[in-house]
Amino acid sequence: MSALPEARPLYDLVETFGIAVRQLREVRGWSQEQLAERSNLNRSYVGEVERGRVIASILTAQKLAGALDINIASLLSRCEQLEQQRTVRRINLAAIAC
After folding, report:
1. Interhelix angle for 32-39 vs 43-50, to 10°?
2. Which string of DSSP letters, residue by residue, matches the chain?
3. Mean pLDDT of all residues in the chain?
4. CA angle (34, 26, 80) in 5-degree steps
5. Side-chain half-sphere of 60: how many Cα atoms within 13 Å?
6. Do 83 and 9 meet the contact criterion of CB atoms below 8 Å apart?
7. What DSSP string describes 72-84?
8. What pLDDT score was predicted for residue 7?
9. 8 band by pLDDT with thresholds 50, 70 and 90
10. How far apart are CA 34 and CA 55, in angstroms?
11. Which has the minimum average pLDDT: 14-23, 44-53, 78-87?
């Protein structure tokens, strides 16, 4: 996804949200179809969310969190943790490159 520099954090958040959803789904051993059924969403849309191709609405995030049996705050907290890990990795890679 190419974006203006100021838009990059938004795309990072969308991508990180998708990663968090995918990880939580996989921990449960569910397919995208199973998550879609549990969250009352279309399977292809769940795939798009997981790949960071669409910006999930708050309603969609709530549906996914409910299906994953966590609250929305926990889902968003997981996103923040993943983003912090990605930042640390970038810093470490930059330090190695110097």
Report:
1. 110
2. ----GGGHHHHHHHHHHHHHHHHHHHHTT--HHHHHHHHT--HHHHHHHHTT-S---HHHHHHHHHHTTS-HHHHHHHHHHHHHHHHHHHHHHHHHH-
3. 90
4. 115
5. 18
6. no
7. HHHHHHHHHHHHH
8. 59
9. low
10. 21
11. 78-87
With tokens 């810093």, the residue in question is 91
Are the CB atoms for 13 and 79 separated by under 8 Å?
Answer: yes
Residue 45 one-letter amino acid: Y
Task: Give which of 65, 58, 63 is closest to 24, Cα–Cα.
Answer: 65
- For tokens 């969310």, name the residue: 49
Q: Which two tokens stand for residue 55?
A: 């910006």
Q: What residue type is assigned to position 65 of the chain?
A: A
pLDDT digits (tens, 9 = 90+) for 23-55: 999 999 999 999 999 999 999 999 999 999 999
